[in-house]
Amino acid sequence: MNNKAPGDRKVIPIIAQQGKQSAQPSESADGGVLSMYASHQTIYPRSVSGLFSNWRWGMVWLTQIIFYGLPWLEWGQRQAVLFDLASRRFYIFGLVLYPQDFIYLAGLLVIAALSLFLFTAVAGRLWCGYACPQTVYTEMFLWIEKKVEGDRSARMRRDAKALSLDKVMRKSTKHFLWLLLALWTGFTFVGYFTPIKQHGIDFLQMSMGSWEVFWTFFYGLATYGNAGFMREQVCLHMCPYARFQSAMFDKDTLVVTYDAERGEPRGARSRRADPTQLKLGACVDCSLCVQVCPTGIDIRNGLQYECIGCGACADVCDTVMDKMGYARGLVKYSTEHAMQQHWSPSQTLRHVLRPRILIYTAILVTVVLAMVTSLALRKPFKVNVIRDRGVMARMVEAGKIENVYRLQVMNATETEQRFKVTVSGLPGLAVTSANELTVPATQARSLVVRAQLPPEVALPGSHPIKFEIESIDMQVHDAEKSVFLVPN
Ligand code: SF4
Ligand code: SF4
After folding, report:
1. Could you tell me the pTM of the whole model?
2. Which residues of the chain have pLDDT under 50?
3. Taking a C-beta distance cutoff of 8 angstroms, is the pair 419, 445 a contact?
């Protein structure tokens, strides 16, 4: 991968220059480089259509229908997906998760990490190019920009002109629409943590709590800044994944590649001209692949860390090839090995399914199955038995020995449950206090249980026992271990 930034002849740039469109560091009179920074030049990506663009827009629709729509779905009497931090309960459709279910969050993170490893090893920065929020929101903001200000050339021309009424009107409209979208995004984000309908009423009545105000505007303004202004700067300078993703690549990873063997020597020519007679390759040097690139790089210079693998250059180059009557695929998804060995697409795909990919897939499937099984077998209640340390083992009437326990029962469902408690583990051991309790939906209650043992059944010391807890309504049992103390 070419990690060399332009202009790094005499300095190690602190801020990497932006592709090939950045300014060069200035030089002093004696030739020494003074500036450690390159000024930012705006990138005006040209809009593009084609297979990969359709995939990206498909992902924009899919991810955003889910993101904006999910908090409005109802499940019974409540919001279907709600991460209620105040009461420490996560509601996900029929599932209610508690802090004790943290293992599932850990499992989810493991699945996300494994998926990233797998997809990166298969086809490089798939996440960056198609599903990353930075890409998705930038695409949406660019769409608004194009509708209001026109495509690349119109925007460049207008920006180069002095201030005019038309310019002010268009810029104001664009920023107004951006802010609306950004605010709606911030509002939706908070709607995952606080009931969104009430949040909407509070928002309209301007009676939101300080927490809601902060996160609605913080998330909204972060979206506005990142997708409207920062754009490729986030991918180039802020995203840690951009820095380490190349460690997951190998020579059989699909990446957007320029076929230099076919394209060079590049050069302009008429559509009717015969490139072999002109001793030219297939690249007509139209620079469209650079103009559509959201990070402003030239894919013909080889794989660069700035490339987010969006495929825009492949789409636009295919349209150029169509117009020229040449075969498509001068810029395409391919692997280093495929380019060297001149493999066909099916040969390339066969090599993409290499042992490393099969191992990643097997681990991922195993973790997903383990998590699904664990969720399916999850008990509808949780029990915690605590020996009451304030009341040690003691002798009661008829010489019986009594130990006192506190049972904390958490109802993990959304319907009320009745529970019955019994004890076993020693001959004659029995619960002598009330052994039934009712726990409201998603609540926890404790029950003080007295367990008594007939005299001379057990020797002095600690004896393992077991509490059986039965949900009378759901016919589900659970058992919790504890100990029974017999004093000297
Ligand atoms: S779009 Fe294709 S033909 Fe045009 S410059 Fe890029 S690689 Fe060459
Ligand atoms: S080089 Fe091509 S694939 Fe890479 S970011 Fe630019 S347009 Fe997207």
Report:
1. 0.84
2. 1-26, 28-29
3. no
